[in-house]
Amino acid sequence: MALSFRDGANNPVNQTISTGVAFAGFETLPLTLFDPRENVTMANAFLVNYTLSETALRGSVHLILTYVFGNDPITTPRDIVFSAVMESPGLHSIQMQELSTAGGLTAIDTITPSNDLIDGTAYDLIFKYQDGAANAPVCSK
Of the four listed, 34, 112, 130, 136, which is most buried by Cβ atoms within 10 Å? Predict the structure, then answer.
């Protein structure tokens, strides 16, 4: 982006240039969640594979696992917040571990609560993020 101006006395033009300015519009661009897929059984170690269309607002990339039914005594949603290395545009992949230890992965900022998923339980997954301009978040279920 360049801003140029000339004063009323017709002195030489003054110009300021800013690089790396991106137009974000009025909405966060869609994301694509490839894995985990819908209606599959997954192990404690599962793949998270997604594409962001634009740079995410810091701390806004979340995978939320919500209890639906089953053996899990903890019905509070597990909120996995991904780190800055997972917030750039493009394809991202991470092999998750048990939630109680996955918080140590470089790609993860926090997991709340960090209780492991329980065998015989169904969870809904919501993946969401916000763009760098803090427009409304978009979700993929």
Answer: 130
